[in-house]
Write a structure and sequence with these properties.
By secondary structure, this protein is of the alpha/beta class. It has two domains: 51 residues, no CATH class; 61 residues, Chitinase A, domain 3 (Roll). It contains three helices and seven strands. The strands form two sheets. A five-stranded mixed β-sheet has the order 5-4-3-7-6. A two-stranded parallel sheet has the order 1-2. A hairpin with a 2-residue loop joins strand 3 and strand 4. The longest helix is centred in the middle third of the chain and has 20 residues. InterPro entries: GreA/GreB_C_sf (IPR036953), Tscrpt_elong_fac_GreA/B_C (IPR001437). Pfam families: GreA_GreB.
Length: 151
Amino acid sequence: MSVAFRRESDEEHREPRFELPIPAGANLVTAAGPALIAARVSELEAAVAAATGEDRERLLRELRYWHTRAATAEVVAPPADDEAGIGSRVTFRLNGATRTITIVGHDEADAEARIAFAAPLARALMGTGPGDLADFQGHSEAIEVIAVENH
């Protein structure tokens, strides 16, 4: 049979589905990190059990990501008192505005108050303490650290 008359399946025209990218480097997390990851795994396992078709495939891919993150999580000891690090809640002033953020692992971060330790702002804050000034985005002493809380 000629290839010209062969019916191609829809599968042949789909884009390949790659695994979710794993952030480079160690999977450092706060003490709360393993429980957050475990909760996400449980949530996805329940969703996979109820899903079918493409939804199920998407959920299985996400579940593989979270299983990998659970297996590689490394809990980081809290930093020294008054020194910003992973797990610290830092209040600082940048461009005249005062903000408070918590430095966490990649998978613990959210859009506003919890930022990953690899984010540029977190990297600028790590190792600082109250009263310190830190460089940020090419500006010397752009950040003034007001307070650091470690639990």
